[in-house]
Amino acid sequence: MACSCFPEDRPAARGGERYNFAAGPAMLPPAVQAQIRDELPDWQGSGLSVLEQPFTGAPFKGLMQQAEQDLRALLALPPNYRVLFLHGGASCQFGLLPMNLLAPGQSADYLESGHWATKAIAEARRHAPLNIIASGQGNGFTALPEPGEWRLDPQAGYCHVTSNETANGLQLQEFPQSQVPLVADMTSDFLTRPLPVERFGLIYASAQKNLGVAGLCLLIVRDDLLRPPRAGLPSPFSYALQAEQQSRLCTPPSFALYCAALMLRWIGQQGGLEAMAHAGRAKSQLLYRGIDASDLYHCRQRPADRSPVSVCFQLRDELLLPRFLAAAGQAGLFNLQGHGAVGGIRASLYNAMPLAGVERLLEFMRDFERRHG
Length: 373
Ligand SMILES: Cc1ncc(COP(=O)(O)O)c(C=O)c1O
Prior knowledge:
CATH superfamily of the largest domain: Type I PLP-dependent aspartate aminotransferase-like (Major domain)
Bound molecules: pyridoxal-5'-phosphate
Strand order of the largest sheet: 2-10-9-8-5-3-4
CATH topology of the largest domain: Aspartate Aminotransferase, domain 2
Shape: globular
CATH architecture of the largest domain: 3-Layer(aba) Sandwich
Structural class: alpha/beta
Strand content: 15-25%
Number of helices: 9
CATH class of the largest domain: Alpha Beta
Order of helices and strands: EHHEHEHEEEEEEEHHHEEHEEH
């Protein structure tokens, strides 16, 4: 969808419903978007916008505390875990994890499960020796390696997994009891289901999918993994130093943090993580059933590993893809193109996507198949 910052250049708005299936930055719940708009000029009667609040002032500190409390309540987070609100996105953590968690010369275990795990591995390798415990490369990342095949090293500093492979449409359904701290990139399925938090040493997620807008990376880390910064690591990138300063060692990404606080509240109001998981199953099962029943669409992912949040599929006639995407956009169904590295179609069904959006997409897909199948 071409867009301009200047209202006079924008295409005339089409009537009817619109659904944004983008992988991220993703759609926000309308209620959250409305609250951001309504209180933007005057936040909580302070006479100032939230964009102008000093991060060391009591009101903003209160917002950070509230966000942390809401997160702790949603996840039933044990007291020995710290919550950090950081800059830099998940990609920045790819390099910072080995720098923060490993002793000099120590290695880490990585599961090579898809596009994002491959990125995490390439970056971490610049800073530490790695052991690939299993890989899905051989099957083109259409299935996850079975946990029984993972070759874990009991001496590793941590074991890294990607809970949801956003580009490949795969989700880890179970998390192993690991001898070494389990570290998970949960960028695309954070807060979409209840989690056995005690199994993890560290969880991290960029915010722009299920937790608001871009600019914030949320990190949950077990106390005992915080170690003094290694030589050369800038202080704002040290988990231990950020934890000591309650994520205020430098100015935190305040607007993204405010949006995350609203999202955490919204998820709680919807019934919490069980409710998110229940709604997610209903949406994704409907879509996968529609794909499996069709002659035009097909899904290459092994059914047991299919992601409920990143539904990736193909057209049997790939030449129809540009026409499919253009017609979908005209029908108010935006950003359905697959990840650049994978191609095809991808419908991101994060928490904010209502069931009505998936029903509308299926109706469109059936109509497209009738015309082009
Ligand atoms: C699983 C996963 N990890 C990491 C990233 C990178 O996030 P960021 O661009 O915020 O660094 C993404 C982005 O889509 C992702 O889906």
